[in-house]
Hints:
Layout: E1 9-12, E2 16-20, E3 26-31, E4 34-37, E5 42-45, H1 49-66, E6 73-77, E7 81-85, E8 88-99, H2 102-108, E9 115-125, E10 134-135, H3 137-142, H4 148-171, E11 174-185, E12 191-194, E13 202-206, H5 216-219, H6 225-243
Antiparallel strand pairs: 1-2, 2-3, 3-7, 4-5, 6-7, 8-9, 8-11, 9-10, 11-12, 11-13
Helix pairs in contact: 1-6
Amino acid sequence: MNYDQNQDLLYEGKAKKVFATKKADQLRLFFKDDLTAFNAQKKGSFQGKGALNRDLASLFFSFLAANKVKSHHVSDMGLTEMIVQKLQMIPLEAVVRNFMAGSFAKKMGRDEGEKLAFPIVEFYFKDDALNDPFLSDEQILVLGIEKAAVVEQIKVKTLQINSLLRDLFSQAGFDLIDFKIEWGRNAKAELILGDEISPDSCRIWDQKTHEKFDKDRFRRDLGGVEEAYAEVYRRLKSVRENQS
């Protein structure tokens, strides 16, 4: 690129940098090679991770757009960047769980991999200093974070995305164990999917072997993180090409 990488830098998070653009209603996202876990207490990286996550996020956003789900994605830029709509982000992570895994399984004393009777949506308050605590619907309301109608709308839209993504992953030979997404409002006050969807924010297991193909490989020192991310992209890209 011919520009200063840090010019117009607005914010740097664990996995991305956010830059201003010449358009007031658009931002430029740069996907970093960094890996973090446990609220950035564990850090690592691998070369090309940013490019893989950008390509995967773009694939997911394009797939969802084809199924009439709006996101902030506008276009891809270079190998590691994306132009997006500027959103007023809602400070909640919406987590969908299809199977027992991670903190949910540990909290309940259950085995990972147990399929839930139906998908559930949980909310977590986005605040690193508080370690992103769980919030019930009532806590969201009483704290004035969002209105009940918006919380319900987020749930409905999140479960719609879950249904679409589970089918996409299944066609690629994966089970979508759980994932988290974020929502915001655009300049028209529309509720829009933001941030990213990638193996950083999903648990993805092979349907036959139950091998993990997500950031748990980094969290749990399983190795092969780069290979896992690349395989997720390879399989999903093949499915999308066959759908075209």
